[in-house]
Amino acid sequence: MNSKTKQRAWTRTGSPTKPAAIAGAAQGRAPAPVPLTIPPARVAFAAAARNVGERLDRFLGQAASERRLALSRTRLKALIEAGHVKVNGVAIHDPAARLTDGAQIEVEAPPPDESPLLAQELPLNILFEDSHLLVLDKPAGLVVHPAAGHERGTLVNALIAHCGDSLSGIGGIRRPGIVHRLDKDTSGLLVVAKTDAAHQGLSALFADHGRTGSLVREYQALAWGTPQAPSGTVDAPLGRHPRQRQKMAVAPPEHGRHAVTHWRLQERLGPASLISCRLETGRTHQIRVHLAHIGHPIVGDAVYGGGFKSKAAQLSPEGRVALARLGRQALHAAKLGFIHPITRENLLFQSAPPDDLSILINVLRH
């Protein structure tokens, strides 16, 4: 992708020097916290009287947070267990060790280990990249993270090869930080952290899902039928399907996790509709399950769009051909915006549906 194409694909908004308080105040949000910084090779802390009896890992987690150091409690626990934390000059291996008044604590953060995952040169459509993070447009068919049956050929394999030594060691291992995922057959925008500081900042944004922070995330879904209302909200807990464990399903509150999807009708397209979805939570397969739950499963979704083959009979011959060529659920992550967790720059990215989905939409319009 050349620089002109990249420039059209995303925009900067606001002032990079002071958007934290201004952007938050303009939208009725709390000011953003001071960005996290990469810790030096050795960091010293001192316990006070109020810390007597406190767990070592808990104390360090709070102390690192107060200094805005990119040291998560999980990372600190691993450093303690590996013998990289000394209390009064003695290496401590127990994260639950209790502190005494005036204890002098030194944390050593060794260079990151190389990732055990395979680096593979794969094509990537990167829209933005700096030393902290990158944003890319994921094609359908690409698995994000290696797993059983997908040990290679994934986005993570490609990012390890692309980023190389610019990965600073998230959690002590030189690897990209995946803070959110897209299903294999869902296309669209994805942000990836390259440093621990960016990873922690982005993780906090995605955990908040835009309720009080700067995150903007919208999907476009081509769904069967036409909703009666122009917009709505699906508030339905999600859990594992009771019989088909590879699937998710709407579940009773005591057995499911809180899940909320806001949707808006964009366009009526005969037997289908183009629907914009905004996530308030980020559960596995959330949009796919929620739209099916309200009677509008996503076109082409073989897992949650029960009966979609009979629905496809309503399409024109050209529509059936376009749907067969699509061969996947018609879901695309179309918009992604956030305040950069390190530079505080306000970023907004937009992605048009890929060709296979655009062709199907255009056929339905005629």
The percent of residues in helical segments reads 10-25%
Structural class based on helices, strands and sheet pairing: alpha+beta
What's the number of helices? 10
Number of strands: 19
Query: For this structure, what is the CATH class of the largest domain?
Result: Alpha Beta
Our count of domains comes out at 3
List keywords for this structure.
366 residues; alpha+beta; Structural Genomics Hypothetical 15.5 Kd Protein In mrcA-pckA Intergenic Region, Chain A; Pseudouridine synthase; 3 domains; eleven-stranded mixed beta sheet; four-stranded antiparallel beta sheet; 19 strands; 25% helix; disordered N terminus
Q: Can you give a write-up of this model?
A:
This protein has 3 domains: 42-108, RNA-binding S4 domain (Structural Genomics Hypothetical 15.5 Kd Protein In mrcA-pckA Intergenic Region, Chain A, Roll), CATH 3.10.290.10; 113-208, Pseudouridine synthase; 216-365, Pseudouridine synthase (2-Layer Sandwich), CATH 3.30.2350.10. With 366 residues, the chain is an alpha+beta fold. Helix 3 (56-66) packs across helix 4 (73-81) and helix 9 packs antiparallel against helix 10 (355-365). Residues 1-8 and 13-30 have low confidence and may be disordered. The chain is built from 10 helices and 19 strands.
